[in-house]
Amino acid sequence: MLEEEYQATHRPFGAQRNQPPLQVPFEYEIRDAAVADLPDVRAIYNHYVANSTVTFDEEPMTLRELRAKFARSQKLNLPFIVAASPSGQVLGYAYVYPWKAKAAYRYTAESSIYLGPAATGKGLGNALMAELVDRSRQAGLKEILAVIADRGAEASVRLHMKFGFKEIGHMGRVGFKFGRWLGTYLMQKSLK
Prior knowledge:
5 helices; seven-stranded mixed sheet; alpha+beta; 192 residues
């Protein structure tokens, strides 16, 4: 058989003529994060450390650092949630963390949301953000801030805008990563 003939008639196993390929449903459960989730959370975050400018961290986060951050969130009763597949794999996560250490800032937190590379573009960011905003309100927070890179994070800016975050400032050239200067957008959402 000629190569051209093979390619013209080859269909993946189980495919029907004129039928779209079989789609596997994207299933997940959003729940409170647990200590057992932290290695997956760390792997997702460190992917962005190594491959993007959405975080200004240049060194991978250690499990010890993440455990300390998680413990502080738990102590302060702040939401730290994950989206997990039916098999338990963490597909993405979101949390809020104190904006500043001074007591007067106690009703303001900074949000973070990260999706595993295979989970992007499937609506998971929307689901995590909706849950994070709701749980932040339940936790008594009044303001959520987001600090977002001004290059390479356009999807994050759009997501935050969709949920009512307003741009309140831009800081140019405040970070240097991968041989280039980067700035940040500061966005805010009131939960009142």
